[in-house]
Design a protein that fits this description.
Blueprint: H1 7-61, H2 66-96, H3 111-119, H4 123-179
Helix pairs in contact: 1-2, 1-4, 3-4
Length: about 180
């Protein structure tokens, strides 16, 4: 039928190109969903680490002393490592979303506050560090919600893409059956 060069052949050729584009788009959507899920998992780890740091910070505010400060900063160090990993995964997610959406959010806890908290241990510095931990925790939750919303949107797009592909394949089958 393709060799005949008729209008059906041309239509089938165009449909085959559309199918190829839809399949490529579906592959990109699946990769973005997977990258988003990895980011969401990383944010859960950040949330847990920051929760531990928050608990230590609250105890430190109540007069925990040097050992409590050291434990709190161990949790902060863990949270920083988790945040760095989450940022790497977020950048990968952003690359996967280049054709869909863009986010430029990052999470950070300042290094100067940690230094000051250790060497100038006092209520004011403990409160500043606790504020930064709480702020990072809030931003993590916000980013996690954004990532979940984006994943949802991509899943909707993927479903729409699948429906288009299904309809296109049905049309192709009808054309082929009608020619026979």
């Amino acid at each position: 039928m393709l060799r005949s060069g008729g209008s059906e052949a041309q239509h089938l050729f165009e449909m085959a190109e559309q199918v190829g584009c839809l399949k490529a788009e579906e592959k990109e959507l699946i990769e973005a969903i997977e990258a988003g899920k990895e980011v969401a998992k990383a944010f859960s780890k950040v949330h847990k680490s920051l929760g531990s740091a928050q608990g230590g910070g609250a105890f430190d505010l109540l007069g925990g002393g040097l050992i409590t400060t050291a434990i709190k900063h161990s949790h902060i160090s863990d949270a920083r490592k988790e945040i760095e990993q989450a940022q790497l995964l977020l950048r990968r997610f952003q690359r996967e979303l280049a054709d869909v959406k863009h986010t430029n959010d990052t999470i950070e806890i300042g290094g100067l506050a940690t230094f000051a908290d250790f060497f100038l241990d006092g209520l004011l510095f403990d409160a500043i560090v606790q504020f930064k931990i709480n702020d990072a925790q809030d931003r993590t939750k916000q980013l996690q919600r954004k990532v979940q919303a984006i994943i949802h949107d991509i899943n909707v797009m993927k479903e729409q893409n699948s429906q288009k592909l299904l309809k296109l394949n049905q049309k192709r089958r009808q054309i082929i059956e009608n020619v026979k």
